[in-house]
């Protein structure tokens, strides 16, 4: 009986050793396969992301070459580079967040490249081809930021009932001028931050400040009056040269001008002969 127990114990011990060796061998094989797969060079390719209709934008392959900061060598000797227009708000609103994220970095990379080429052309005293590309990239990035801000506001309004933007309010500086102040985070609360309180508790008053505000408001009023008269004269000349022009277009371009009143004005009709009774 004792011999039988010893034989069973030996068989169990040998089985445990075999299972332990098998587990160690499997773990070794997995580690070797992982190292081989990590050493294998990955294939870099560009990803095409669908956009509006037949319009596509491609994400370039990830490279670490410094030539990515420069334009294609074929465009170095050209005086004009053919490019498309800037991205519109309506086109960006129908895209997903992932596509907007990819497009943002594409535009950022394009902007860095154009700024590098502009700096290099200025150093070499050469003509920078198609400088309007910078304006188109800037407009596209501003429109993309507007779309992302709209989505953030909608999300925060749905979840919390607030816009999620930094709170802002009108404050007066030492000269009495009103400006928008956006709140920012501070380590100390307002009632303990003596430096912040001193910088915001600047009073204004006195005869000199009142005279300055009077002249400043007069300047703003004159600028507004001149702009209104200039728009009125432009509408008058357009109606004089083109009597059948679309009034809706004029109203959209000059909203502060009374178009109906300008049509019936004598100056709009030009020179006219008074009636002579005889």
Automatic annotation (TrEMBL):
Domain of life: Eukaryota
Keyword Ribosomal protein annotated: yes
One cellular component (GO) term of this entry: mitochondrial large ribosomal subunit
Signal peptide (from-to): none
Cellular location(s): Mitochondrion
Keywords annotated in UniProt: Mitochondrion, Ribonucleoprotein, Ribosomal protein
Gene3D superfamilies referenced in this protein's UniProt entry, alphabetically: 6.10.330.20
GO biological process, one term: mitochondrial translation
InterPro entries: MRP-L47_sf, Ribosomal_uL29_mit
Single GO MF annotation: structural constituent of ribosome
Family: Belongs to the universal ribosomal protein uL29 family.
Name of the protein described by the UniProt record: Large ribosomal subunit protein uL29m
Organism of provenance: Glossina fuscipes
Lineage: Eukaryota, Metazoa, Ecdysozoa, Arthropoda, Hexapoda
Gene from which this protein is expressed: LOC119639544
């Amino acid at each position: 009986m004792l011999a039988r127990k010893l034989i069973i114990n030996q068989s169990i011990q040998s089985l445990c050793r075999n299972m332990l060796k098998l587990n160690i061998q499997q773990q070794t094989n997995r580690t070797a396969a992982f190292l081989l797969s990590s050493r294998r060079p990955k294939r870099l390719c560009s990803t095409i992301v669908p956009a509006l209709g037949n319009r596509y934008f491609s994400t370039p392959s990830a490279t670490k070459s410094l030539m990515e900061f420069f334009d294609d060598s074929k465009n170095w000797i050209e005086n004009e580079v053919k490019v498309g227009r800037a991205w519109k708000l309506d086109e960006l609103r129908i895209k997903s967040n992932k596509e907007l994220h990819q497009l943002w970095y594409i535009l950022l990379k394009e902007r860095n490249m154009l700024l590098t080429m502009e700096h290099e052309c200025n150093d070499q005293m050469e003509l920078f081809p198609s400088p309007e590309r910078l304006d188109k990239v800037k407009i596209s990035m501003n429109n993309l930021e507007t779309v992302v801000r709209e989505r953030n506001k909608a999300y925060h309004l749905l979840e919390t009932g607030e816009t999620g933007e930094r709170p802002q309010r009108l404050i007066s500086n030492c000269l009495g001028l009103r400006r928008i102040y956006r709140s920012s985070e501070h380590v100390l609360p307002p009632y303990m931050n003596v430096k912040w309180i001193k910088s915001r508790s600047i009073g204004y008053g006195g005869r000199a400040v009142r005279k300055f505000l009077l002249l400043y408001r007069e300047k703003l009023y004159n600028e507004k009056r001149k702009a209104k008269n200039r728009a009125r004269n432009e509408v008058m000349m357009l109606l004089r040269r083109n009597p059948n022009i679309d009034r809706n277009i004029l109203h959209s371009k000059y909203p502060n001008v009374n178009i109906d009143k300008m049509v019936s004005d004598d100056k709009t009709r030009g020179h006219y002969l008074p009636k002579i009774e005889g």
